[in-house]
What we know:
Layout: H1 2-25, E1 32-36, H2 44-51, E2 57-64, E3 71-79, H3 82-92, E4 95-97, E5 100-106
Amino acid sequence: MAFVSRFRRVFTSSLSSQFASVRLNSTLTSPKLFISGLSRETTDEQLTEAFNPFGQLVEAKVIRDRATGRSKGFGFVTYTSIEEAEKAREEMNAKFLHGWAIFVDPAKPREPRPPPRSGPGPSGTGFRTNNTVGWTG
């Protein structure tokens, strides 16, 4: 039984450190960081407070739902230099912020979205238009 618990302890500690190193392996190409795992109550000001000690912030923004205004649980932090962003990433990745474990990763560029469709289909109100001619009843 002692062998099993020792094996489990060795295995889990090496496995968790391996995952942490995989997350930190990619190098930053921009000073913008993606912060995931935020509490729903975290505000822009609190995010600024948490990431301010690592360098001069350009912007700290918690992403919110358009309809409800609630936090989506992630945000972005932008620094003036890549070195400051790297330091913040090393210090804040897998740490607790407001009771939640957050993860700090390099931000990826926004992917282009296809242009909105025109013609039949969902209208701006969210309802489909009925293009039927004649009696449908």
